[in-house]
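Quick look at the format.
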Amino acid sequence: MTGPLLSVEDLTIGTRHSGGRTVPIVENVSFDVEPGQRLGIVGESGSGKSLTLRAIAGLLPRGVEVLAGRIEYGGRDLLTMPARQRRALMGPEIAMIFQEPMTALNPVMRVGDQIAEAPQVHLGLSRTQSRERALDLMRRVGIPDPTRRARAYPHELSGGLRQRIMIAIALSCDPKLILCDEPTTALDVTIQDQILKLLLNLRREFGVSVVFVTHDLAVVAQTCERLAVMYAGQIVETGSVDEVFRAPRHPYTLGLLRSVPHFDSVQDSLSSIQGAPPDLVMPPPGCRFHPRCSFAQEDCLSGNFPLRPLSARRATACIHPDAPAADVDRSPVVADA
């Protein structure tokens, strides 16, 4: 196909209140995902990462809705598509791996049956064929003794095995796009590393596109090619992972990178971003990051701050991108991140 597989344009998500008043939670978010590409979306908790992913999948919480924008998959607008057609895309075209498999898996259904369900419904496989496919997928995601494990219920498996079951379910219909909502957050470090390597190997094997939401910059460095940084419901910087990590052009991105402990250098204290994210019911005027920004100037306090291109593949919402750039040059700890 030509053009992006997924295109999100000016997406605004929020709630409606009495009198027609709306409160945006995610505002004017735009990004593209090319076929086979891995995009990471990072930011603090509450920045709107997971809501953006759930809007793509059509799984927004009750009371939260898309207020404006477009979400196109393969040239088709998901937001104007009939609900039945959109549901039919989930599985064969788009799959999702959730943060906590214990709450995403059916607790009273054997895990093998949960993997086999989608191929039987969407691909028209027989019951025997879908069970064989489930066992094959369990082998591919590294589950030992799949015949025995397939008969287990979710509570009988460890967190790492449950997450592998979620990945097998996501792959069960050979989707072209997988949405990963912090799938390694609840796992210990060794299991997290295994799951990330598994996702990378499966992406190479199946050639799927991946959107990976996380607050862990190390996860992004290990799994993604491109990066979108979110703050207070808005994307504030985009670019390749290497470019953004080595030369951040937004003070928030610089603050995130400096907050990561570096074990190869001596630090008297850990860095942090002062203050707290704003209340989205009454966000600050101008740049939403300016109350926490050490580079803020008078012109940061009012106006709109959309993404501004720095090059064909780089953009930032900061109107003074040279300030964090100059600070990076004086900070080898960040430059080597």
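Next, a different chain entirely:
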Amino acid sequence: MKSLWVIRILFLALCTAAGLAISQVRPEYIEHEWGGLVIGFGFGWLMIAIDEMLKGFSLRAFSATTFGLLLGMLCALLIENSGLFENVDEHTTRWMIRLALFLAFGYIGMVLAMRSNKEDFSLIIPYVRFAPQNQLETFLLLDTSVIIDGRIADLIEAKFLEGLIIVPRFVLKELQQVADSADPVKRARGQRGLEMLGRIQQNNRIEVKIHDADYPEETGVDAKLVRLAKNIRAKIFTNDANLIRVAELQSVNCVNLNELAKCLRMTLMAGEVVSLKIIREGRDKGQGLGYLPDGTMVVVNHAQSHIGQQVDARVINTLQTGAGVIVFAEMRAGLNQPS
């Protein structure tokens, strides 16, 4: 943003100097030098104001409106030359009809172009998709929750994800605010997120880009993420269920790492033997609790006396709950005896 204001100040100075030069070269247009300075300075500020109003107006939107304007002008020109207004004699009336035609069709063309997607243009210009031929890269857009989670770094290091990792600057700002929080829990989460982001950036196999796009008219980070994903055709990686619902309503691709983790959990059948560490006692007498590497909880009968030890247990059955799968197992004679 600082570099942008440097350009704006330079442009304003050039406009002011140009106004002064015009007052000296063409005094018939501007009589006084101060008048040239004021006009040049005012013109510069007008352009900067227009630039500020067009913030968030992308190059794709500009090209679409230009194309729509050209189509609208073409339609207006065809109607004007169609002979419908040949009987209009007054020059003023004919001029007003032409003005109305070009304004109306120009506006309609721009609005329709803004509402259309790239596939609609292929109906007008066959075989043209308005996309670069060498655009083969996949954009992976990360939100705050998935960066703090950290599993995205494991997936990248395990070569399960390919593409350009994009972290918006407003997400980085939110992550920094969490890391600076007075709440020690939030502060620890934010610091972990920054560490995970640094770990991803150190991976030489994949490129990470900090995206500077911002949408001041959008109040929430989720809304900004969805809009950015639509503009650059990226896939959002998140653990936020609400963000996923909003993105799906706007036809934006999302990946929920929690759902992905559920799909990758191993399926255990009755009779299989699992090895795990008993970490605490269970609800019922004699039970011990442990967890598999994927986070699945295992309730082991007759394992209370083995808390803190690595044991082998035979699966009895499994129970599907809203929080996931719970495995019930039992220690049997011979499974935990040294061979």
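The first helix runs from residue 2 to 25.

See the schema section for token definitions.
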